[in-house]
Specification:
This is tRNA pseudouridine synthase B. By secondary structure, the protein is α+β, with helices and mostly antiparallel strands. Helices cover 21% and strands 33% of the residues. The chain is built from 7 helices and 20 strands.
């Protein structure tokens, strides 16, 4: 069994919990997830099976999309609904739809975020959440992330009340913390805030419609029709630029040969998927660090003769 199994991650489980459970269900060890989803977050978690674990990082590096809810009026230690309240301020302002839209527009494009203390980012070899659990606050490195779009999923013209909640849809780059984005929305409105709900609706090319729940996976496994829901390894890297080769070059690729970069890919500084004329990806290549005009394999995915 190999390929990508898009899982509908339930609330209350870590990404690692999901992998552990699937290893038991599928009775196989070579399984990996494609980027951490917090326990409170549900939605799309592509799971790599067998040889597809080699391409997990390319799904992780691809864009993501979420639907979430921000609550204005109090903030929490974890920046989501599971943490203890650290600041509370009754909302006395009334906001127009245009004011909310202006705030969302101001957070579109490249923004700078500071990862939350309750996150898996490493500082001095230790994950931030480990410091947080000990009550230690450390300096965190800020990072630039890209917010491609934010859409307000609320039809109201006026937003008022001692607490204000509204839903939004965001498309973003890897490394974006939607929890922190919710806090930033609150800051721009002048109030503490947190992310009260979040669903990942897309990861790379995988959407909610592709996903199976654990119960569905078990039933399909029992009925013998699970394989039809497992996506080919190629679906994980469909967003990468492609270089199509003939059978003669294919044999060289399987053996890790250095290749000349075709003219249309000379400006690519990221990974390139090298595929056969039948669309089977044999390897991931990148520009050679020492030999201009050439590219070398980063990962050989298939080397059978």
């Amino acid at each position: 069994m190999e390929g990508i199994l898009p899982l509908l991650k339930p609330k209350g489980m870590t990404s690692h919990d999901c992998v552990f459970k699937l290893r038991k269900i599928l009775k196989m060890k070579k399984i990996g997830h494609t980027g951490t989803l917090d326990p409170d977050v549900t939605g799309v978690l592509p799971i790599c099976l067998g040889r597809a674990t080699k391409v997990a990082e390319y799904i992780t590096d691809a864009g993501k999309a979420y639907e979430g809810e921000v609550t204005i009026g109090f903030s929490t230690a974890t920046e989501d609904s599971s943490g203890e309240i650290v600041e509370e301020k009754q909302v006395t302002s009334t906001f127009s739809r245009d004011q909310i839209l202006d705030v969302l527009a101001s957070l579109t494009g490249e923004i700078t975020q500071t990862p939350p203390m309750y996150s898996a980012v490493k500082v001095n070899g230790k994950r931030l959440y480990e410091y947080a659990r000990q009550g230690i606050t450390v300096e965190r490195p800020s990072r630039k992330v890209m917010i491609y779009s934010i859409e307000l999923l609320d039809e109201r013209d006026i937003f008022s009340g001692s607490l204000i909640r509204f839903r939004f849809r965001v498309s973003c780059s890897k490394g974006t913390y939607i929890r922190t984005l919710a806090v930033m929305i609150g800051e721009k409105l002048g109030y503490p805030a947190h992310m009260s709900e979040l669903v990942r609706i897309q990861s790379a090319d995988f959407t909610l419609e592709d996903c199976l729940k654990f119960e569905e996976i078990e039933k399909r496994l029992q009925d013998g029709n699970l394989l039809e829901k497992i996506k080919p390894l190629e679906s994980a890297i469909s967003h990468l630029p492609k270089y199509t080769i003939n059978d003669t070059v294919a044999e060289k690729v399987k053996n890790g040969a250095v290749l000349k970069i075709p003219g249309y890919l000379t400006n690519e500084d990221g990974p390139i998927a090298v595929e056969t004329e039948n669309g089977v990806v044999l390897a991931i290549y990148a520009q050679h660090p020492e030999k201009p005009g050439l590219m070398k394999p980063v990962k050989v995915l298939r080397n059978e003769t």
